[in-house]
Design a protein that fits this description.
The complex is a heterotrimer of chains A (404), B (383) and C (131). Chain A is an alpha/beta fold and 404 residues long. Chain A is 38% helix and 15% strand. Chain A is built from twelve helices and 15 strands. In chain A, the strands form four sheets. A seven-stranded mixed beta sheet of chain A has the order 2-8-7-6-5-3-4, sandwiched between helices. In chain A, helix 2 packs parallel to helix 7, helix 3 runs parallel beside helix 4 and helix 7 crosses helix 11. Chain A is globular, with a radius of gyration of 23 Å. Chain B starts with 5 loop residues before the first strand and ends with a helix. In chain C, helix 1 crosses helix 2 and helix 4 crosses helix 5. The longest helix of chain C is centred in the C-terminal third of the chain and has 27 residues. Chain C is elongated. At the A-B interface, helix 1, helix 2, helix 3, helix 4 and helix 7 of A face helix 1, helix 2, helix 3, helix 4 and helix 8 of B.
Chain lengths: 404, 383, 131
C-alpha cells in the first residue's frame, strides 16, 4: 500500500490549515501588518477592513449579523467569556447554571470556577447514547436558573444535541442559552436567525483555519449582555480587549467561507468514508460504537474494542494518529469522563479510539486503518487472558479478581 | 496604502520579520498537530513550543519554566493583575498613573468587585514617584504594577527600585515590559520583579502571542479555564505558529539589539533636532527613554488633524496610543505628567524601527513643516 | 510515554505467549490483577519430574510494560527450580527493562504472578502426595 504513515485521523483535535486559507493569511503577515486599532493611518485601516470582511464571513456561515460576532483567542476563551460573562452579568436574577457532564473542559471548568464563587450548577447526565433527555433538562430548571450551556456537537463522540428544543425551553424560562459549536462549524448547518440560542462559541482550528483565533456570537435581538473578562483598550465593543491578530482573523474568515461553500459536498464524501471505516471495523468481534450513530456528525467514529487494554492499544496503532479514550496523566490512565458519563465501564472506556475523519482523508487511509486495526486487535487479543476467558464462555463480571 | 508609505508607528505594531515568518510557515501548514495530542503530530508541535519557551526565556534571562504563553500583552496583563490579586482575596492593587489600559482597566474591574485600587503618580518627566510607593503600600497590598517603559513617552521606569520596595513590604511587583522588549535590554533576574508581561507583535514577531514571565513562588489564578494547558494557568489549544514566531523573534532581538540601538538613537536625535527647530515641545527628553520613541506636540495645532494630514502624505504616526485613538481625549499619560490638556490633545508619537532611515526623517520633517505652516494659516484665518 | 528498547522488543515480539493445560498436575497457573485496574496477568509454568521448570507461558491484558514484564519472566523461569523461581524479584525485572517509576507496578505484578503460579503448583503436588 502506498499510504504515507502516520495517517492523520484526529481532525477533531485540530485540522491542518487549508492551503487556500494559508495563502489568504500570508499578505497580512507581510505587507499588511498594521494594527487594526490604529485609526490614524492606512496601515491600520487596511487591517481593519480585512478584520471586518472576515467577521462577515463568520457571520454568514451561521446566518448571524456581523455585529453579533466578537473575536477571541479561541473557543476556550469564547466559552469562558460566555459562561462567566453571562453568569456574572445576570447574577442578580439568580445563580443557578445547567450544563451537561459530557461538555468540553472549556465549559466544565469555567462552571466549576463559578461554583467556587458561589454559583450552583447542575451537570446533567446524558442518556447512554450521549443525547440529552429533554425531560431531564426541564426538570433541572429552577426559578433561579440564569444560564444553560449545551454543546452542539460533542468532541469525543460526535453526537448532535437538539439545540433547538433545548433553546426553546430556555426561552420559555428566561434562561440565557450558550452553545459550544467548536466541533460543529462546517459539519452541521447552523442558522442563528432561527435557533433560539443567545451565545455561541466558535473555533477556527477545528475548521481548517489557524490556531489561536475564535469567536463568540452574542445575540443582539433580544440583546444579551456580558461582563467582559479581559479589559484594556476596549476592542470588540469593550467585550474583549487586546490587539487582534489580523492574519489569524483573516484565516478564520476564509476557513468559514470555504466551510459554507463546500460543507454539503464534503459531508457526503466524509459520510462515505465513515461508513467504509465502520463496516470494516464491525468485522471485528466485540466492538462497540460509543454515542448515537444517527444523530451524529459523520466525521466522528468512536469505538471501544473489548478485552484490549487502552495503553497497549495506543502503542499498537502508532501508524495512525488518533485520540484514545484515556487521557494519560503522569501516573495512571484515566478513562474518558465522556464515556464514563455514558455509563461505559472503565475497561471499555480505556479501550476506545476516536477516529475523526476530515478534508484530506482518503479511501486508502481508511482501508489501511481497517487492516491495521484488524491485525493489531487480533494480536492483542491473542495476548489477552480476558479474551481467552471470553472465548471459554466465562462471564468476566462474575469473576472474583485477586486484589492487587 | 501605497509603496511610498513610511511607517513610524513601531510602538503600535511591527512588521513581521521575514526570517521569523520562515520559521512559522511550517507550523501554519504541514506541522499542524494539537500539542496536547500524544501522537507524533502532537509531539512535534509540543517540542516546537518548548523550544520557543527556551528562546523567550533566554531573551529576558529567565528560566523556561517561568514562561506562560498567552494570546498577547493584553491577556497577560489581565492575567497578572486579576490572577495575582484574586489569590489574596479582597486586597489592594497599586498601578501607576501611566499604565496601559490593559493594566488599568483590570484593576478597575477588580475594584468593582470589592478590591481596593491606588494610583501611583508620576513627576513632570513621566517617571513614577518611587518614594510615594512606600506610603501607598500596606499589609493588604497584593500586587503593584508599573510598566518598564511607557508606550507613549518611552520613559523608562525605575522598576528595580520599585521591586525592592515591594519586596520589603512583602508584596508582588509586576511589570509590563511590552514596549521595552526589543528596544532596551530586559533582564528578568536583574529587574528582580515577580512577574513580567511580554508581547510578540511589538518585536517583529506575529500578532497573537505573548507571555507572562512568573516567579513560580507567586500564587496566581488562571483567567481562562478548561483544558489545563500552560500548567493550568492558561487553558486553550496553543497558538503554535504564533508561539514559534514569538520564540524566533526573541532570538532575533537578542542578536541585533546593540546594532539596532546604534542605528535608531542617532535617527531620533536627528528627528528631535528638527522638531525643536519647528518649535515642538518634546516630552520626557531630560530622562532615560526608549531609543526609538519621540512624543511631541505643537502649541495651537490639533494633533488629530495633523496626524490625518501626515497620513495623506504617506507617514504613519500615532496620536496617543493606538488603542485609545478612537477617542479624542487628551493623552492620560501627559495629563498625569501635568501637561496642559490643550497641548496634550495635540500630541503625536513617532516610534522608529530598524527599517527606518535618515532620508525618511528628512522627508518627514519637510512635510511636517509644510503642514504646520498650512494649519497655522488656517487657524489664523479662522480667528 | 517513552518506552525502553527492551520493552518495545518484548511488546513487538512477545516470547512464550500461550496457554498450558491448567489441569495437568505438572502445570502451575497464576492469575493476578483485575480488568478494572487495567492489568490482568496469567502466568503458567510446567515442571519436569526433577522439579525444574521446563516451560512457561503467559497471557497479559495490560500496557506495554506489563506485557514486557511477563514476557521477560517466562524467559527467566525456564531451567529454574521452583525455589529459584520464587526468588525472582520485581526490582530485577524493572532494572532489566529500564521501567520508569510509574511502571514499577508492572514488575510487581509479574513477581506476584510467579509466586501465584509456584503456589498453585506446590498446592497441586501436596494434594497429590496426600492422595
Amino acid at each position: 500500500m502506498t499510504v504515507k504513515t502516520p495517517i492523520y485521523l484526529d481532525y477533531s483535535a485540530t485540522t491542518p490549515v487549508d492551503a487556500r486559507v494559508a495563502e489568504k493569511m500570508i499578505p497580512y503577515l507581510t505587507e499588511h501588518f498594521g494594527n487594526p486599532a490604529s485609526r490614524s493611518h492606512s496601515f491600520g485601516w487596511v487591517a481593519e477592513k480585512a478584520v471586518e470582511n472576515a467577521r462577515e464571513e463568520v457571520a454568514k456561515l451561521v446566518n448571524a449579523d456581523p455585529r453579533e460576532i466578537i473575536w477571541t483567542s479561541g473557543a476556550t476563551e469564547s466559552n469562558n467569556l460566555a459562561i462567566k460573562g453571562a453568569a456574572h452579568f445576570y447574577s442578580g436574577k439568580g445563580k443557578h447554571i445547567i450544563t451537561v457532564q459530557t461538555e468540553h473542559k472549556a465549559v466544565i471548568d469555567p462552571v466549576r470556577e463559578l461554583e467556587r464563587l458561589g454559583f450552583e450548577a447542575t451537570f446533567l447526565q446524558p442518556e447512554p447514547n450521549g443525547l440529552l433527555d429533554l425531560e431531564k433538562f426541564k426538570a433541572a430548571i429552577r426559578p433561579d436558573t440564569v444560564l444553560a450551556s449545551v454543546m452542539l456537537v460533542n468532541n469525543e463522540i460526535g453526537v448532535i444535541q437538539d439545540i433547538e428544543a433545548i433553546g426553546n425551553l430556555c426561552r420559555e424560562h428566561g434562561i440565557i442559552f450558550h452553545v459550544d459549536s467548536a466541533q460543529a462549524t462546517g459539519k452541521v448547518a447552523i442558522d442563528l436567525e432561527k435557533l433560539p440560542v443567545d451565545l455561541m462559541s466558535f473555533s477556527a482550528h477545528k475548521t481548517y483555519g489557524p490556531k489561536g483565533i475564535g469567536a463568540l456570537y452574542v445575540r443582539r435581538k433580544p440583546r444579551v449582555r456580558l461582563e467582559a473578562q479581559m479589559h484594556g483598550g476596549g476592542h470588540e465593543r469593550g467585550l474583549r480587549s487586546g490587539t487582534l491578530a489580523t492574519h489569524q482573523i483573516v484565516g478564520m474568515g476564509e476557513a468559514f467561507r470555504i466551510a459554507r461553500e463546500e460543507m454539503e459536498l464534503e459531508n457526503a464524501r466524509i459520510r462515505r468514508l465513515r461508513d467504509r471505516l465502520l463496516s470494516g471495523l464491525q468485522d471485528i468481534e466485540e466492538v462497540y460504537v460509543n454515542g448515537d450513530l444517527k444523530q451524529r456528525v459523520p466525521h466522528n467514529l468512536n469505538i471501544s474494542f473489548n478485552f484490549v487494554e487502552g495503553e497497549s492499544l495506543i502503542m499498537a496503532v502508532k501508524d495512525i494518529a488518533v485520540s484514545s479514550g484515556s487521557a494519560c496523566t503522569s501516573a495512571s490512565l484515566e478513562p474518558s469522563y465522556v464515556l464514563r458519563a455514558l455509563g461505559r465501564s472503565d475497561e471499555l472506556a480505556h479501550s476506545s479510539i476516536r477516529f475523526s475523519i476530515g478534508r484530506f482523508t482518503t479511501e486508502e487511509d481508511i482501508d489501511y486503518t481497517v487492516a491495521l486495526m484488524k491485525s493489531k486487535i487480533g494480536k492483542l487479543r491473542e495476548l489477552s487472558p480476558l479474551w481467552e476467558m471470553h472465548l471459554e464462555g466465562i462471564d468476566l463480571s462474575k469473576v472474583e479478581w485477586a486484589a492487587h | 496604502m501605497n509603496g511610498t508609505d513610511i511607517y513610524f508607528d513601531h510602538n503600535a505594531t511591527t512588521a513581521l520579520d521575514a526570517g521569523v515568518l520562515e520559521t512559522m510557515l511550517p507550523f501554519m501548514t504541514q506541522q499542524h498537530g494539537n500539542p496536547t495530542s500524544r501522537h507524533s503530530f502532537g509531539r512535534h508541535t509540543r517540542s516546537a513550543i518548548e523550544r520557543a519557551r527556551e528562546q523567550v526565556a533566554d531573551a529576558v534571562n529567565a528560566h523556561p519554566s517561568q514562561v506562560i504563553f498567552t494570546s498577547g500583552g493584553t491577556e497577560t496583563n489581565n492575567l497578572a493583575i486579576t490572577g495575582i490579586a484574586s489569590c489574596y482575596g479582597v486586597s489592594q492593587i497599586v498601578t501607576s498613573a501611566i499604565e496601559h489600559p490593559c493594566v488599568h482597566r483590570p484593576a478597575l474591574a477588580m475594584k468593582q468587585r470589592g478590591w481596593k485600587h491606588a494610583l501611583l503618580g508620576v513627576d513632570q518627566n513621566g517617571t513614577v514617584k518611587t518614594a510615594l510607593l512606600n506610603t501607598l503600600l500596606n499589609t493588604e497590598t497584593s500586587v503593584v504594577s508599573v510598566m518598564l517603559a511607557n508606550n507613549e513617552t518611552g520613559v523608562i521606569q525605575p522598576v528595580t527600585e520599585l521591586a525592592e520596595i515591594a519586596r520589603r513590604h512583602g508584596t508582588t511587583l509586576h511589570t509590563d515590559a511590552v514596549q521595552a522588549l526589543g528596544k532596551v535590554r530586559v533582564d528578568f533576574a536583574e529587574l528582580n520583579v515577580h512577574a513580567m508581561t511580554l508581547s510578540s507583535h511589538k518585536i517583529n514577531g506575529p500578532q497573537g502571542a505573548g507571555a507572562l514571565i512568573l516567579d513560580k513562588r507567586i500564587d496566581i489564578q488562571p483567567i481562562i479555564h478548561g483544558g489545563g494547558q500552560e500548567r493550568g494557568l492558561r487553558s486553550g489549544t496553543e497558538n503554535v505558529a504564533a508561539i514559534v514566531g514569538f520564540g524566533a523573534a526573541c532570538e532575533l532581538i537578542q542578536a541585533r539589539l546593540s546594532q539596532q540601538d546604534a542605528h535608531i538613537r542617532p535617527l531620533r536625535e536627528h528627528l528631535e533636532n528638527g522638531l525643536n527647530r519647528l518649535g515642538a515641545v518634546v516630552f520626557g527628553t531630560s530622562i532615560e527613554r526608549l531609543p526609538n520613541t519621540s512624543f511631541f506636540a505643537f502649541n495651537e495645532i490639533d494633533g488629530e488633524t495633523l496626524v490625518m494630514a501626515l497620513d495623506r502624505k504617506g507617514f504613519a504616526v500615532a496620536s496617543g496610543s493606538a488603542c485609545s485613538s478612537d477617542s479624542s481625549e487628551p493623552s492620560s499619560v501627559l495629563l498625569a505628567m501635568g501637561v496642559e490638556p490643550d497641548l496634550a490633545k495635540g500630541a503625536i508619537r513617532v516610534s522608529l524601527g530598524i527599517d527606518n532611515s535618515r532620508e525618511q526623517i528628512d522627508a518627514f520633517l519637510a512635510v511636517l513643516e509644510q503642514e504646520i505652516t498650512r494649519l497655522r494659516q488656517l487657524t489664523a484665518i479662522a480667528v | 510515554m517513552a518506552y525502553s528498547d527492551k520493552v518495545l522488543d518484548h511488546y513487538e515480539n512477545p516470547r512464550n505467549v500461550g496457554t498450558l493445560d491448567k489441569n495437568d498436575p505438572h502445570v502451575g497457573t497464576g492469575m493476578v490483577g483485575a480488568p478494572a485496574c487495567g492489568d490482568v496477568m496469567k502466568l503458567q509454568i510446567k515442571v519436569n519430574d526433577s522439579g525444574i521448570i521446563e516451560d512457561a507461558k503467559f497471557k497479559t491484558y495490560g500496557c506495554g510494560s506489563a506485557i514486557a514484564s511477563s514476557s521477560l519472566v517466562t524467559e527467566w523461569l525456564k531451567g529454574k527450580s521452583l525455589d529459584e523461581a520464587a526468588q525472582i524479584k520485581n526490582s530485577a525485572i524493572a532494572e532489566e527493562l529500564a521501567l520508569p517509576p510509574v511502571k514499577i507496578h508492572c514488575s510487581v505484578l509479574a513477581e506476584d504472578a510467579i509466586k501465584a503460579a509456584v503456589a498453585d503448583l506446590k498446592a497441586k503436588q501436596t494434594d497429590k502426595e496426600v492422595a
